[in-house]
């Protein structure tokens, strides 16, 4: 699963909030196209906290709550409750007017009021972790993806010294690094410590030069078909 987010939102609200915003934006677009979950003249999507945690397997409930609150406070989403109570803590979300700058301008408003609610709970499992509000976003995302999990406190300190744009670049580089020859050979013993990877800015190197080549077996005379 590939996850994307808009850097402008990440810079303002954190990487975690930007990822959740993209998730909400996706389902609003889906619901708009299918005429689902219309309330008060707007198209909404909804989810319970438990469902959020299930979808984002490495997120904590507090982290998700903080990210959503950051989006609300930034005027990017509006939170509502049309589930007849909050026993299961299911909240509804729509894009606020300010969010129009970050996507198609026909996503928020839709057709008739009072349309019958249709179950459209997001069922795509997401895998980008969150971090507490006010802390540089994405360390747990980095830690969950980095294969050599040693020295977490020192790695966290190195992470906090990075700019947000650098943190985003680190996370974006990891899938390529995890496939490179240097990291996969000999059981991964040549993977640098995470602190070294961050302090020496290894993510700026080119992992493409270290990609695992496709092994080819030389053809012998005995193998040449007659």
List the helices and strands and how they pair.
Layout: H1 7-13, H2 15-34, E1 38-39, E2 42-43, E3 45-48, H3 49-55, H4 61-73, E4 77-80, E5 90-95, H5 139-145, H6 152-160, H7 164-178, H8 181-184, H9 194-199
Antiparallel strand pairs: 1-2, 3-5, 4-5
Helix pairs in contact: 1-2, 2-4, 5-7
Low-confidence stretches: 104-137, 211-226
Computed CA radius of gyration, to the nearest angstrom:
22 Å
Coarse shape: elongated
Termini, distance in Å? 46 Å
Taking strands numbered 1, 2, ... along the chain, how are they ordered across the largest sheet? Answer: 3-5-4
User: How much strand?
Assistant: 5-15%
Mean pLDDT: 74
Give the H and E element order. HHEEEHHEEHHHHH
How many strand elements?
5
Question: Biggest sheet: strands, sense, closure?
Answer: 3 strands, antiparallel
Share of helix among residues? 25-40%
- Name the CATH superfamily classification of the largest domain: Winged helix-like DNA-binding domain superfamily/Winged helix DNA-binding domain
